[in-house]
Structures are given as structure tokens and as C-alpha cells.
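Objective 1b: paired records.
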Amino acid sequence: MGGTTVHARVPQVAGFARWPHEGSAKQSGRALREQVPRAVFGRPETWTWQDRARRDSASGAVASAVAAVEESNAGRLQDLVPLRVGRMAASPFAFLRGSAGLMAADLADRPVTGIAAQICGDAHAANFGLYGDARGGLVMDINDFDETVRGPWEWDLLRLAASLVLAGREAGAAQDVCRAAAYDAVGAYRRTVRLLAKLPVHEAWNAIADEQLVAHADARDLAGTLDQVSAKARRNTSAKFAARSTEPIEGGARRFTDVPPVLRRIPDAEAAAVAGALDGYLDTVGEDRLPLLARYAVHDVAFRVVGTGSVGTRSYVVLLLDHLGEPLVLQVKEARASALLPYAAKAGFPAEPVEHEGRRVVLGQKRMQVVSDILLGWTDVDGLPFQVRQFRNRKGSVDPATLPPGLLDDYGRMTGALLARAHAHSADPRLLAGYCGKNEELDEAMAAFAVAYADRTEADHADLLAAIRAGRLPADFEGRPTAA
């Protein structure tokens, strides 16, 4: 039956595809290779970040990595800025983890394919991990979305590849091993979008269940490490955190204890403001979750320092107890504007006005994950936007900087496959597959980029250390020796 006959009976409905489907998304992807050859990612003439000292500030490029760190510290709690700087100074990989905006600035003036996806914005190798689903199972996926925007899919993949090189170097892996990990991550991404492009849409949307992922990504040697991480993640619960970080008080209630410098009690007025903001949070959670939350009482609020890039943002943990005294801990975390936003616009991906930064983070997360936290939401505290999620929801992760060299490429393949699956929710996998293609041209080019950008990051990290030694940037090393 032709398309005309079908639509004579059933009108075209906005938001749905037309029938018959017009054109070939895969052919459109292939055509993009003429405009942006895959080899261009590996061409040094497009790497304008190689010599920051010669960059023209009038072009909008960031000439100094130290200036970028200083700029990113604006608006943070200033007493925590030295802690953030100290964590970034720990290694070049740690520096990369705290400088998503700097890398976006570096990529904003190079060619892009124009294929838009919901991107993580900070898809480095340590931002993948395990977390619990509603039934107590473990899911593996990207797990950090503070910088998420709609932008060029390749930015996430380039960041992942470069981070694998830096993580491998930190672990003491040989240069060819580090490059192979980046190469394999891109190859796994490419093969995964090709697989998803061949599947019915519904199957592709829910593809790559955890039990199949290791086999699909050819990462079987990583299975033992994942088993260990899974066992630890199952114990990483609200109950365990509450047992270690709270104390009983009169009437059977509990309250947080001071565990400096990470966890600290806060004044009553601040605690009341955070607790009161949960009222607005309830308006953002699905109505089917409200009876669940209604069975918990709010007991206490504390301030908790988090992450590397997030240090200095306002972040709280809220203790809830049910009728048996069993805890549920929520994290209420400040949602700042994505550091990628101006650079994505410069690259040709202007964003819609952001209604609420917490909402941006939550919706971006839901658009990329197969399974998301059932208690995700957002609210405002004293006029600032926050995201809300479960804290210690059986979270676990592999630290790629501590992996044996023989497992780094397995980890690269696994994360590359996960990233491809996440992008395929918002970008047509047929379009991505058409561009990425069958051969290894993209793998080679992005691996060359990854090694060069890792070199650039090591130089940026050295500049950060020099700024610390010169007294330009204060740094708190949390008891670690000052980096030389």
C-alpha cells in the first residue's frame, strides 16, 4: 500500500515520521564525509590548541589553561576553590576531569559533522559506572551529566579517547597501549552505531543490556574487575552511608555528624531552606513516586563536597527515614550553567533557552540513559537551581587510572560502546553509522587526536602547577604531597 493511500485514511501526525520514510539516513551520513572527511580529526593543522601562547584572544579561544581554571572558579564557594585546584593538580588526568569547558573551547573552532546529539559534555573515562535500578539490579552507563547539552556527538568521543590516553599514562602503561585504548574506544563506538542502525527502533533504543555488553564490546578480560566493582557497588547504599555518617538523637531520630573536610553540619536556617526546597522538588517527580516519598520523614541536612569539577558548587545530602528507621539519602546539588554552552553555539549548535539548570541536567540524563534514577528531579534553594537524585544508589565505578595495562583497551571498548548507545537515543544511529563507516579511518584519526591532546593536557597541567608554586592559585592538597 502506498503512502498516499495510508494517509488518505490516517493523517500525518506531528511528532511522528512520515510514511514511507523519505531518503536514507545512512546515505546522508556517508555524504557528510565529503564535507568533513573522517581523517580531519587526526590532522594537526586543525589542532589550534597545540600552542596556546600563539592563539588570538580576539577569536574567543582560550589562550591560557590557568586563565580557564580561574574563569571556571567564578561563582563557586571561594573557601572550596583551593580544594578544587588541589584535586585538579593531582595529575594530568585529574586536570582533564576538571576542565570540560577548556576542551570545549579547544574544539569549538575545528570542523564538526553537524550531527546533533544529547551529549554528556564530560564523557571522560571515569564518568562511566554502575548504579542501581528500581528493582535492585545494577546498570552500567554514563553517570555524570552536569555539563550535558545538545551538541556535536564527536566532542564526547574525542574527550573519551583523550582521557583514556591520560588514564593509561597515569597507570604507567606504555604509549602504544594508551593509544590502543583510544583507538579501540572509537572502534567500539563505530561498530555499536552500525549494530544499532540495523535493529528495529524499539530494540535499538533498549539495546545492550549489561549481561551482553562485555561480550558485545569484546571486553571479556574486564569481567573479573567488573565483578569486584559490582560487589562493592551493591554495598554502597544509603543505609551504609547513614550508618557511618549519622548519629542517633533523642526520640529515635538521627542527624549527620561532621566528617571534615567532606561532610559538615550546617546552620539551622540553611538546613531549613534546603529541606523546604523539597516541596518544589515533589512537583518535578512523577506522580507515581509521590506515595513512596510520602512514607519517609525528613530528618537532617548536611553539606557534602563532591567530585573534581564540581568542587565549590553547593551540594547537600538530605537524610530521610521510614517507619522502621531505614534511611534514604537524597543529594541536592547545585546545577550551574553548562560550561559547553557558549562553545556549542559557536560550533553551530545554539541551545534553546534553559528553563531551569536542574531540569536541563535531569532531562539530559534521561535522554542518554536506558534506565535512570526513579527519584530524579529539580528545585530551587534560595533562588539557585539544584538537581535532586538518590545518593549512594549502589554506585560503583572502575578507576581507569589504576587498571592494569592489559585491561585498558577492554575498558576503552566498553565505554565506547556505552557512549554510542547513549548518543543513539537522540541522534539517528543510521546517520552516525553512515558517517563512521566500516573501515578504521575514524579510529586512526581520533586516536592520533587523543595522543596529541593528552600531550597538550600534560602541558596545561604543568602550567597549573607553576601557577600554584607562584602563588597565583591557592591549592589544598588534602594531605597529599604538593605536586612538584
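Objective 1b, second protein:
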Amino acid sequence: MQFEFSVRQGYQLLRKQKKIKLKELASQIGVSIPMLSMYENEVVNLRKEKEKQYRDYILSAVGNKGEGYL
């Protein structure tokens, strides 16, 4: 069985694997938590600059610093 994820679902999974909370991400890129949730669930779109910040933060984040990740 093969699963196909959208780009947003892929980033959402990566965010969750890295234990990045919506609250942390929202404060870093300057949008609300509900807005990010709706974005990840493909209800709304972010402006291109915010979308780039969202993706860059997830890709560059190593993980929750309180969890012992480097």
C-alpha cells in the first residue's frame, strides 16, 4: 500500500517529528496558531513570504531543545 501526501502534509509530519509546536512556529513567523493549523489542513493559504519562513524554520530546526536534541 502506498500513501501520497501533499506538500503541506509532508511539512506537518516533519514538524511533528521534530516536536515543533504550532505555538513556537507561529511566534517565529508572525502568524496566529489557528492560521497555521488551517494552513496545514489546507483550508487557507499563507502569503508566499510566510510560507517560505514556515518551511525554512521546519527544515532548519533540529528539534525541541528541551528534549535533548542537538
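Residues 48-60 form the longest helix (13 residues). Residues 7-62 form a domain with the 434 Repressor (Amino-terminal Domain) fold (CATH 1.10.260).
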